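STRUCTURE:
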């Protein structure tokens, strides 16, 4: 689906990526995690052909995104963090934009709007930011592109809307679609993500499936950590400690993406060692 090799990219004098390699496959929801300003949005824009790398190669669906061929553009959709929608009705927006996407489904679009409880009688500029974002997400899903890129999609959504978003996105996943979600709000999306990639200061610190993470790491809450060794990350709470430790006992614990991110960023070498070696530490 996507193959990135030795990617270099810089904004004038600010280097963002210096030779990263990465791949994404169909049938999965990828979480691209990292703090603001670390290069997540840049990577998504390079993948969809809005930015051009200084060196290296990007292959998406057999295309070079920089060439922006029609056959490529009709099968890729990006939901940016910042966007503008014109002051038109939803119906006119669809009439103007849907013809560019061969697999667009009007029926699915209307169903998504209903799921999101969008006031379809309003023009786009009469809607709140969150309502506009839900219209854009509904349109993106209804386009049925093989690749869907979403940059901070939960920003601007209230608590109920975030629940609706998770439900709608889960129903849209299939074996032919690759979804990459860039976010720093990991709690909003951790039930959806199959594969985690963590970016920090232009480097890929970590890239593993949820199944592999669950097999190698344990996420625990403990009031007595004294009998535990090799703690990768510890976070104090009022009632004890939240811990990330090597899964030496083959336990099955729920992956906490927020704790995972903090463990990788603060202790990258030890985490990398656990996932590199077949024997557990």
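SEQUENCE:
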């Amino acid at each position: 689906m996507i193959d990135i090799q030795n990617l270099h990219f810089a904004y004038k004098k600010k280097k963002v990526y210096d030779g990263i390699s990465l791949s994404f496959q169909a049938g999965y929801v990828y979480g691209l995690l990292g703090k603001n300003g670390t290069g997540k949005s840049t990577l998504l824009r390079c993948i969809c052909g809005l930015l051009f790398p200084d060196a290296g190669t990007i292959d998406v669906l057999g295309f070079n995104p920089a060439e922006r061929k029609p056959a490529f553009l009709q099968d890729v959709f990006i939901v940016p963090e910042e966007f503008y929608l014109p002051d038109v009705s939803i119906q006119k927006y669809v009439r103007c934009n849907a013809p560019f996407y061969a697999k667009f489904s009007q029926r699915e679009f209307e169903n998504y709007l209903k799921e999101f409880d969008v006031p379809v009688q309003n023009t786009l500029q009469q809607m709140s930011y969150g309502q506009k974002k839900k219209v854009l997400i509904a349109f993106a899903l209804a386009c049925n592109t093989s690749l869907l890129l979403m940059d901070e999609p939960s920003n601007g959504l209230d608590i109920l809307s975030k629940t609706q978003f998770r439900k709608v996105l889960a129903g849209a996943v299939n074996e032919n679609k690759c979804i990459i979600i860039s976010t720093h709000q990991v709690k909003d999306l951790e039930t959806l993500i199959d594969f985690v990639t963590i970016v920090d200061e232009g480097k890929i610190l970590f890239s593993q499936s949820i199944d592999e993470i669950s097999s190698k790491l344990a996420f625990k809450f403990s009031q007595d950590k004294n009998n535990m060794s090799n703690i990768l990350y510890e976070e104090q709470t009022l009632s004890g400690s939240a811990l990330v430790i090597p899964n030496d006992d083959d336990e099955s614990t729920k992956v906490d993406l927020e704790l995972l991110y903090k463990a990788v960023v603060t202790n990258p070498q030890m985490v990398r060692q656990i996932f590199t070696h077949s024997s557990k530490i």
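REMARK: Residues 87 and 255 are 42 Å apart (CA to CA).
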